[in-house]
Amino acid sequence: MRLSFSEVLSESFGHFFANIRLFFDLVTIPWIISIAIRVIGGLLAIDSPLGALIEKAIDVVPTTMFVVAWQRLVLLGPHRIERLPGTGWSPRETAWLGHLLKVAGMTFLLMAIFMLTIGPMDPRALQAGAAIDPDVARRYALAGPLAFGFIVSLLLALRVSWGLAATAVDVPFSPRFSWVHSRGNAWPIIGALFVVYFGGAFVTAVAMLLTHGIMRGVLRADDAAAVVSWTVAILMAYGVMAITATVQAVIFRRLLAWREGVGLPAVSDS
Prior knowledge:
By secondary structure, this protein is mainly α. The protein has one domain. The chain has ten helices and no strands. The chain has helices at 5-18, 20-43, 49-76, 91-118, 134-141, 143-160, 164-168, 175-181, 186-218, 222-256. The two termini are 16 Å apart. Keywords: Membrane, Transmembrane, Transmembrane helix. The chain crosses the membrane at residues 20-45, 57-76, 96-119, 140-166, 186-212, 224-251.
């Protein structure tokens, strides 16, 4: 089946906004857990790239619980959500997390290597005529190959990530199945997920900056500005994840004409 970029996005956004009340019901506990992770990270003053990576890795846990429940909502309906996300962990979440590692593990690893290799960037090193430390120059020279590898890995991950929706509804699936079943639809899949994820990241950043500006400039709440800004940003990020997960579920259902209890098309290597 040929996927339509516009139809996938239209159905996904329509489903999200039609279920916005359920979104807040499902996101509350994972949202609180993610805020706690961010606050603890701030209290521990983890400002290094390694600290940020550890924080992101831990935050995958509440994210997994939320996305599994949301994709079940999209594909099976609200009556098939067995518990509120964040109140328990089951083999289903374990399988979904394992699938995620297969899809995006290399991308995360390349990002980690990039961040740890490049390290904090000194703006003075970018000034015209400034002397560059040889060690810094060597590290910056690695930025190009690492960035290229990350971009390629990211595109491949986007291409096969829609199969995560299958795992959420207990259908055995793998990145190989996603690759084979999506032949001829690679760019609509990549394009839809890219637009949602990175467009959402931009909106999240804008919302965070606006919130921070209002807290400091209008309400004069300097001490609370950072906490409130991160709280809003994390909620926005969960909204982006919900739409992204919806796109994955819509692609899964449309591409394979999936219905519960009906077998999937056979995989052909040709």
